[in-house]
Amino acid sequence: MIADDAMALDEKALFAGRPVKIVSNLPYNVGTALFVRWMTTDWQPWWQSLTLMFQREVAERIVAQPDSKAYGRLSVLSQWRADPRILFNVPASAFTPPPKVASAIIHVTPRAPRMEGIDPKSMERVTEAAFGQRRKMLRASLKTLTPKTEELLERAGITPTQRAETVNIDGFCKLALAWQAMNDKA
């Protein structure tokens, strides 16, 4: 057992290539941050699988598909290199004292990336910008990345009037690659 701050651990060094399966009821206040960090490490990840309990709303975001209210940054970051699924819901009544929210158990297994060559930091930046202003069209929400949003979207094959929640995972992969290429050229 390791008693330490999970946000301060260097898991890769700690587990040193040993096969790791994480099973945890993550504290809700750091669960999402840990999950994002684990999804954006160098690939292949240091873990073989993740079985985690989240607030149900967060679990639904992780597995959400495009064109749904729950689809967002967590959906893209989790699904571009892994297969997440909800195993089951956990009602608040399962805990004493019961929390004010329902929970869900998710299982995540890594797989080969949908597209090679994407820097995880690029995917993080692109999804953060795209979903940072959900109601705006991508040509407006991506202005925090580059003033050349039209060129960026054209390179990725995405219509500038689309909103982030309508772009599938492959579209975000193309967007991240296009943004990297534009930055490499600059």
TrEMBL record:
Keywords: Methyltransferase, RNA-binding, rRNA processing, S-adenosyl-L-methionine, Transferase. It comes from Iodidimonas gelatinilytica. Belongs to the class I-like SAM-binding methyltransferase superfamily. rRNA adenine N(6)-methyltransferase family. It comes from the Bacteria. InterPro entries: KsgA/Erm, rRNA_Ade_diMease-like_C, rRNA_Ade_methylase_Trfase_N, SAM-dependent_MTases_sf. One of its GO terms (cellular component) is cytosol. Residues 2-112 form the Ribosomal RNA adenine methylase transferase N-terminal domain. S-adenosyl-L-methionine binds at residues 1, 5, 25. GO terms for molecular function: RNA binding; rRNA (adenine-N6,N6-)-dimethyltransferase activity. This is Ribosomal RNA adenine methylase transferase N-terminal domain-containing protein.
